[in-house]
């Protein structure tokens, strides 16, 4: 669905709100893995015409750093700037909460995500070898490439 205006809003979910698992599972195919971080994360959504079309989960780490553990946009709304909207608003929320940097990890096979994150100022800092082989029971393929390693990127909020 094509969005013809910028009338979507950025909304923080409360701890008692229902998490949009149907979206979270688009980015992380393991509900078990999602459950390890979601209740300890700040969860924000992009809402368009009262429909949740995107989600982002920000997990606090040590030393004024947080990690984006999950970001997903409904397929019919992708490639319209919603992911950028979620990330940029998360930068503002994190900075307002005293965070100095944001980390994000994605698979070696996530070509579009790696492009987007670097365009938004993230820089590669680490590769966690065999992360997806060690932490996921099912084999994951994207873009015809097996997801094996996690590429970790970081961006300063200064």
Automatic annotation (TrEMBL):
Annotated Gene3D superfamilies: 3.40.630.30
Mention any Pfam family matching this sequence. Answer: Acetyltransf_7
Instruction: Identify the residues that the record assigns to the N-acetyltransferase domain, covering every copy.
Output: 1-143
Which keywords describe this protein according to UniProt? Transferase
Q: Which InterPro entries match?
A: Acyl_CoA_acyltransferase, GNAT_dom, NAT_camello-type
- Specify the domain of life of the species encoding this protein: Bacteria
- Under what name is this protein listed? Ribosomal protein S18 acetylase RimI-like enzyme
């Amino acid at each position: 669905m094509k969005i013809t205006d910028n009338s979507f809003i950025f909304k923080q979910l409360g701890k008692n709100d229902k998490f949009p698992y149907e979206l979270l599972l688009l980015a992380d195919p393991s509900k078990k893995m999602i459950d390890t971080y979601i209740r300890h994360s700040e969860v924000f959504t992009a809402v368009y015409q009262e429909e949740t079309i995107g989600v982002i989960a920000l997990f606090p780490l040590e030393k004024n750093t947080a990690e984006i553990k999950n970001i997903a946009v409904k397929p019919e709304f992708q490639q319209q700037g919603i992911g950028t909207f979620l990330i940029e608003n998360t930068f503002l929320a994190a900075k307002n909460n005293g965070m100095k940097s944001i980390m994000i990890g994605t698979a070696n096979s996530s070509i579009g995500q790696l492009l987007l994150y670097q365009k938004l100022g993230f820089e590669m800092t680490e590769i966690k070898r065999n992360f997806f082989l060690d932490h996921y029971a099912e084999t994951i393929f994207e873009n015809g490439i097996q997801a094996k390693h996690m590429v970790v990127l970081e961006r300063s909020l200064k």
